[in-house]
Amino acid sequence: MKEELLKRMVKGPDGVEFEIEPLRDYYCEAAPTVMHGAYIKIVEDMFNWARSESIWILGFGTGCGAIEMRPLMTPRFDAYRYGVQWRPTPRQANLFIISGYLSTKTLKRAIRAYEQMQSPKYVIGLGSCTINGGMYWDSYNTIKRLDEYLPVDLYIAGCMPRPEALLAGFVDLKKLIRAGKGEGANLYAEKFEWYKANQKRVIHDWDMPDYNW
Amino acid sequence: MRELHTRLKNLFPLGELTEQRPDLTFVTVPREHLRSLLLHLRDREGFTHLVLLTAVDWLEEGKFQLTYLLCDRARHRDLGLRVMIPRDAATMESIHEVWPTAATYQRELREMFGIDFPGSPRLEEDFILEGWNDIPPYRRDFDTKKYAEESYGQRPGRETHDPATHMKQQLYPGEA
Fold first, then answer.
1. Strands A95-99 and B49-58
2. Residue B72: its pLDDT value, please?
3. Do A138 and B144 make contact, defined as CB atoms within 8 angstroms?
4. Which tens digits make up the pLDDT trace of B42-73?
5. Which tops the pLDDT comparison, B60 or B156?
6. What's the CA gap between B150 and B155, in Å, rounded?
7. Distance between CA B27 and CA B17 in Å, rounded?
8. Is the distance from CB of A72 to CB of A168 less than 8 angstroms?
9. Comparing B115 with A24, which gets the higher pLDDT?
């Protein structure tokens, strides 16, 4: 673990010494909880309809698939007409597109970013690499099955899928959310121990809190 | 490049010469003369740019080959210097004072091949891999496939076809 993350004594500008523990001081370690739906189905359905029309994507490209998202921001493919837009921070996003291969180093950042997003949140696995490793099936540092580490709502197959496939994916995701099946965040909370165990099995230098938001 | 080689040969004990292209030549150098040769090439011969520093694992011979590729931008020519070092407890003199960029290559080589460069800045820090717990992955005795299967596990249902027979069946279904 890096030295700046260790528990240690520091001296403040006023000369007073105090103890800091960065992994505990700056984060809330409380595990995620399951968010229950509205008290009546018709209200929950309305919420889901509204959620499906507000898909804000985290602008985090993990692999070569990120290049397929750029044309969607142009007039040619224009994803914005579907109510989809990209945001620069996880705090403002509710859809995480894992765009292509995910190395264990990036996985660590992806987990942090996912946990910092606000619920209800969704994950799309883009490209073969997220499904079974794709052309990186025998790579020493690329994960093979994304759904072991993050709750995936939808996979888009291809190497790489065209922007049109992504648009079709958005439409399918909207259908899932409207049908009340976009429950990834709750699944993550329910099977939190299982996800953490899987994540820690491949990330050998775990230097962050178990749940960071 | 030939006359450069002749000129250098009078000054340094050079080894085997390989002319890849008219503007790209490789030459083997004993490791104790590498530093003075690099300085000579940089300051006297116009090879001002270190293009890359990389390694080749000659597992059967028990050696690592380090390749220092230099570029003479004015005359549009490249010269690669090959240095053979023993593979066991591989260590090499750092050249980060000659080219500061070499420090980055040396960090990479230490992580991916396990070659030590004593004195090179930030050598101990993780470069690409984080928390690596096996032998360096670019060494040829590292079994990538076995490591991937043990660490990650494949999704069931994945099939692998031999490309030749698969394409034969696809193109000529009756004959195969």
1. unpaired
2. 94
3. yes
4. 999 999 999 999 999 999 999 999 999 999 99
5. B60
6. 13
7. 5
8. no
9. B115
Q: The complex's ipTM?
A: 0.83
**B176 has a pLDDT exceeding 70:** no
Residues of chain A whose pLDDT is less than 70? 213
Q: Where are the domains of chain A?
A: 32-202
CATH topology of domain A32-202: Rossmann fold (3.40.50)
DSSP B111-153: HHT--B-TT-TTTTS--S-SS--SS-TTSTTS-HHHHHHHHT-
Chain B residues in contact with A201 by the CB 8 A cut-off are 151
CA distance B156 to B93: 48
Q: Which domains does chain B have, with CATH numbers?
A: 2-153 (3.30.460.80)
Q: Does the beta-carbon distance from A145 to B152 stay under 8 Å?
A: yes
Query: How confident is the model at residue A5, as a pLDDT?
Result: 85
- Per CB-CB distance under 8 Å, the chain A contacts of B154 are 132-133, 137, 144
The whole-model pTM stands at: 0.87
DSSP A34: P
How many angstroms separate the CA atoms of B77 and A110, rounded?
A: 43
User: How many angstroms separate the CA atoms of A109 and A98, rounded?
Assistant: 11
For residue A189, give every residue at least 6 positions away whose Cβ sits within 8 Å of its Cβ, in sequence order, or none.
A31, A32, A33, A34, A35
Which residues in chain B touch residue A141, judged by CB atoms under 8 angstroms apart? 129, 137
- pLDDT at residue B175 tops 80: no
Residue A148: count other Cβ atoms within 10 Å of its Cβ. Answer: 18
> DSSP code of A76?
T
Rounded to whole angstroms, the Cα distance separating A79 from A97 reads 14
Pick A182 or B157 by higher pLDDT: A182
